[in-house]
Amino acid sequence: MGDHVRGAVPHAQVLVDLSAIRDNAAELRVRAGSAELMAVVKADGYGHGLVPAARAAQVGGATWLGTAVLAEALALRAAGIEGRLMAWLCAPGERWTDALAADVDVSAAAPWVVAEIADAARETGRIARLHLKIDTGLGRSGSTEADWPGLVDVALKAQAEGLVNVVGLWSHFAIADAPEHPANVAQVETFRSAVALAEARGVRPEVRHLANSAATLMSPHTHFDLVRTGLAVYGLSPLADVVSPGDVGLRPAMSVRARLALVKRVTAGQGVSYGHFHVTDRETNLALVPLGYADGVPRHGSSGDGGPGGPVLIGGKIRRVAGRVCMDQFVVDAGDDHLQAGDEVVLFGDGTSGEPTAQDWAQACRTISYEIVTRFAPRLPRTYIDREAAL
Ligand SMILES: *Cc1c(COP(=O)(O)O)cnc(C)c1O
Description:
The two termini are 21 Å apart. The chain is α/β, with parallel strands linked by helices. The chain has eleven helices and 19 strands. Strand 7 (164-170), helix 8 and strand 8 form a beta-alpha-beta unit. The strands form four sheets. Strands 11-14-17-16-15-18-10-1-19 form a nine-stranded mixed beta sheet. The chain has a four-stranded parallel beta sheet with strand order 4-3-2-9. Strands 5-6-7-8 form a four-stranded parallel beta sheet, with helices on one face. The protein folds into two domains: 32-234, TIM Barrel; 254-390, Lyase, Ornithine Decarboxylase, Chain A, domain 1.
C-alpha cells in the first residue's frame, strides 16, 4: 500500500480502499444468509465518504443503504444512488415531503411521527414506506412495549387511508458485542412478540430487522429478513476482544498517512509539546507529524497524561506519540533512528505492512474503532484506491 503515497502527495491524507468495502459487503452478504444486507453509511460512510462507500457496498451486494439523518439519505439520492434507502433518525418538522419525493424509507417510534409522515403523503400524493421501531431494551429510540399497540394501530389507520405502507418492523441491540449476554436473548424475545402483535393486528412486514454488525457476525438467529451492518462494512470488528477483522473475512478500508514535517536533534531534558508531558531522557531525534486533533487524531492519543500514546509506523518501526497531541501536529521521539522530513508516517491501516490498525488507536485512546474512523477527513484530502470497485 505504501506505493500509493510515494511521489507528490499531500502532507497528510486519508486513503480509502473501495475494493475492501466492496469485498467486505460481499462477505457480509454471504454471512447474512437468506437475509438482505443493508450497508449503514451514516456519518459520511463512517468517515470513508458517503457516496463512494455506498456505491462500493452496493457493488458488493448491499441491496439496502441506511443513514441516521434524512440529509444523508437525500445527499445519496442527489448523487444518483438508487436502491432501497432508509433514514431512521427524525425530529419534529422533518423534511418528510423531500423524503417521500426521494423514495426514502422512513421510520416512526411514536404516533406523532406517523401523523407527520401521513400529512406529507397527503401533500405529495406519495405513499410512505414506513418502518415501525420498537425499543426491545436499548433504552434509546423506539416505542416502549406499552406504547407499541397504539403505534401499530395509528400506523394501520394511516395505511387504511392509503397514506403509508408499513413495510418494516425493527429494533436495535444494546449489547450485541457480548453475544452471550442475557440481554440479547431478552431483546430477541421482545422483538418476536412485538412482531407477532403487529402481525396479529394486520401488519404484513416486508422486512423485520434487528441485527447490527456484531449480531450479523456472531448471532445468525437474529438476522430475520435484513441485517444492518455499519462498522463491518468498513472492515473493522465490532467485537475487538473476540474476533479480529481477518477472523471473519473482513479487511479495514481506511488508512491515515502523513509525511514527517521536520526532524531535529535535541538534548536530554527537553520538554516536548504543550504541558511537557514527555521529557527526553537522552539526546534524541524528535520527529514532527503534521496531523492533530483538528484532523481527527484524538487528543486522548497523547502520552504521559494517563495514556500510552497512539502508535504510528515510521521507518519500519512502531513508535508512539510523545506528549500531547496538538490541534495540527504531534511529536514522536525517535531516539537515534535516522529519520528525515518527508518520511512516511502511517497512523493506521489494515495492518498487513506492520502498521497499527484503527483498533490499536481505539485501544490507546480508550475508545472504540467506530470513533477513530468517523473523526478523520474533514480537513484532510480523502484519496480513493481502486475506484473501479465503486463503478
Ligand atoms: C449505526 C447503526 C447500525 C450499524 O451499527 P454497526 O455496529 O456499525 O453495525 C445499525 N442500526 C442502527 C439503528 C444504527 O444506528
